[in-house]
Amino acid sequence: MRKSIQHGRLCLTFDDRNFDNWLKVLPLWRKYDARGTFFVSGAVDATAIGVMQRLQNDGHTVGLHALHHAKYPNKKDTYIEEEILPQLDVCRNAGIKIRSFAYPYSLRDEESDGRLFEYFDFLRGGAWQIREKDQEMVSIDRLFLKDVADKQLFYGMSASGNFDFHEVSQSIFRAAERGETIVFYAHDIPEKLAPSHHISVGQLEVLLKLARALDMDICGMNEL
Ligand SMILES: [Zn+2]
Asked: Which domain holds residue 13?
């Protein structure tokens, strides 16, 4: 039975292997009663397992992001065997609950979704795939989900780099007002903003504070 999402749901997601900073900001998430989703690429070695367990123990969701961070279109025939199963098998054995996958470079199509839904409940692509030139994020209805299906593809919006705070906050306001679920993505969470693809600790706190003030559910994908 799914929780009611009267005030909207914010899913913040983070990719790759930015383990040090992901762990460093765990107290910040606790402060706002918030959880995120962390998509891990590369070998699920002892280091990765340790990080995944710490994230999971704090209530966060761990997802997968491909063993070699390979582009799906380049490896269609071998993607499951070479990119998915080696990560998935180790996670299962280590007691890491995996339900979600983020496409490297957001490269996907309906055929890839169909194959990956055999292993995952939730897939994340990128909003740029469906955004028309100059279209405002807040006006793209497919980014705002009233209901989350048992097998759901999300188009993640960027909350990284020098992102447009107005654009991001407009989307958060809309989701809060209409009880919708929205997904953002970034990568590392450094103290000072590194060039592109990342979100600084300060920026993350601004988003957490805003969503909390709007009484949104700030949750990981395992909670959907
Ligand atoms: Zn990536």
From this structure: 9-223
In a domain, 20, yes or no: yes
CA of 217 to the centre of ligand 1 (A): 25
pLDDT tens digit sequence for 203-218: 999 999 999 999 999 9
What are the DSSP calls for 125-171, one per residue? EEGGGTPPTT--GGG-GGGSBSS--SSEEEEEEE--SS--HHHHHHH
Q: Are 72 and 103 in contact (CB under 8 A)?
A: yes
Question: pLDDT digits over 163-183, tens only?
Answer: 788 999 999 999 999 999 999
Distance from the CA of 121 to the center of ligand 1, in angstroms? 19
Q: Please tell me the distance between residue 155's alpha carbon and the centre of ligand 1 in angstroms.
A: 15
Q: How far is the CA of 102 from the centre of ligand 1 (A)?
A: 8
Report d(CA 14, CA 188) in Å as an integer: 7
Say how many Å lie between the CA of residue 69 and the centre of ligand 1.
Answer: 6
Ligand 1 midpoint to CA 40 (Å): 8
- The answer as to whether 2 is a domain residue is no
φ/ψ region of 200 (left if φ > 0, alpha if ψ in -120 to 50, else beta) reads beta
CA of 132 to the centre of ligand 1 (A): 23
Residue 190: pLDDT over 80:
yes
Instruction: Compute, in angstroms, the gap from residue 105 CA to the centroid of ligand 1.
Output: 6
Our count of domains for the chain comes to 1
Residues 6+ apart with CB under 8 A from 44: 52, 86, 87, 90, 91, 94
